[in-house]
Design goal:
Layout (H helix, E strand, L loop, with lengths): L7 E2 L6 E2 L2 E4 L6 H9 L4 E4 L5 H14 L4 E6 L4 H15 L4 E6 L8 H12 L3 E7 L6 H9 L5 E7 L7 H4 L12 E5 L22 H10 L5 E4 L4 H13 L4 H17 L10 H6 L4
Parallel strand pairs: 3-4, 3-10, 4-5, 5-6, 6-7, 7-8, 8-9, 9-10
Antiparallel strand pairs: 1-2
Helix pairs in contact: 1-2, 3-4, 7-8
Length: 288
């Protein structure tokens, strides 16, 4: 059996998650999300765009499978005082009984204690169970890893951008992820680099585009990465992601090819929003 089919515990929560999670943004039909759950993906991320088709899938599945589902609600709010009401409204719209994770999205600095206070109120009300965080400020994340190791961080999962084009986490984050001992789960997203890695029109001469399957395999093959988020728009894209779980880790020559294409793509198509920590690479036109 492929090692990518084996579930991993998220942080120290006791929750066992699939190596792939599904985001709601790209509006895959309800039946596609339900089928993916039955094929092994149990992490559902009702995040940046909260599609009603995704909510329907969550509600349908929760009737019989709630204890095997891991559901995350995201908040970008910079004001801790608004989050409780936001989560309450999302809970009403979702059709589920609670969220397993509150994810504080796109944080450039370690959130203040006020955000932890709000989480603790929601936890005491049994609306959410755990906290997680995403960031484009890679150099900040080792601080959270260190705090977690000392039992001083509530964030059981950290999410960041990583793919064959954007590789800065290999310098700024992954060396600080402990191989053993307490650590939060590391989850990455944008595995296809917004579709660039799978686009034939963007390839260097003589190169075939990378399959979406291999983009997900690329990220999951890194030893520091526990989970990868996918954003399917249809059944075919969902099948590609699941095929990555079934196929397993990349061979060295496959990884080298993706990184070669990634270096080319970064030089041709710089990101509109570079991560913090990329300034020198952006100026030099190096792949991240």
């Amino acid at each position: 059996m492929s090692e990518f089919l084996q579930r991993r515990e998220i942080g120290n929560t006791g929750l066992m998650s699939s190596r792939l999670g599904i985001g709601s943004t790209f509006n895959a039909p309800t039946h596609v999300i339900e089928d993916a759950f039955h094929r092994g993906i149990n992490y559902l991320y009702w995040g940046t765009v909260r599609q009603p088709t995704f909510a329907q899938a969550m509600a349908n599945l929760a009737r019989q499978h709630r204890d095997d589902m891991i559901i995350t609600i995201q908040s970008y709010s910079p004001d801790a005082g608004t989050i409780e009401g936001e989560v309450e409204e999302a809970l009403k719209a979702s059709g589920v009984d609670r969220f397993d994770f509150l994810l504080l999205g796109n944080r450039a600095a370690v959130p203040s204690g006020a955000f932890v206070d709000v989480f603790e109120r929601l936890r005491d009300r049994d609306i959410v169970r755990y906290m997680s965080l995403s960031s484009h400020n890679r150099p900040m994340l080792p601080q959270l890893l260190d705090l977690y190791a000392r039992g001083e961080s509530p964030y059981e999962l950290l999410m960041l951008r990583y793919n064959g084009v954007h590789r800065g986490a290999e310098r700024d984050v992954f060396p600080f992820v402990p191989e053993s001992g307490p650590k939060p789960t590391i989850m990455t997203y944008t595995a296809t680099r917004w579709g660039h890695l799978v686009d034939p029109s963007k390839m260097p001469d003589g190169e075939e585009p990378v399959s979406a399957r291999d983009c997900y395999r690329y990220s999951m093959s890194h030893p520091a990465i526990d989970m990868v988020l996918c954003g399917p728009a249809n059944a075919a894209q969902m099948d590609e992601a699941i095929a990555a779980m079934e196929r397993g880790p990349l061979e060295p020559h496959e990884r080298e090819r993706i990184e070669r294409i990634g270096a080319y793509l970064y030089g041709q198509y710089a990101p509109a929003y570079p991560d913090e920590g990329d300034a020198e690479d952006v100026a030099a036109g190096r792949a991240l």
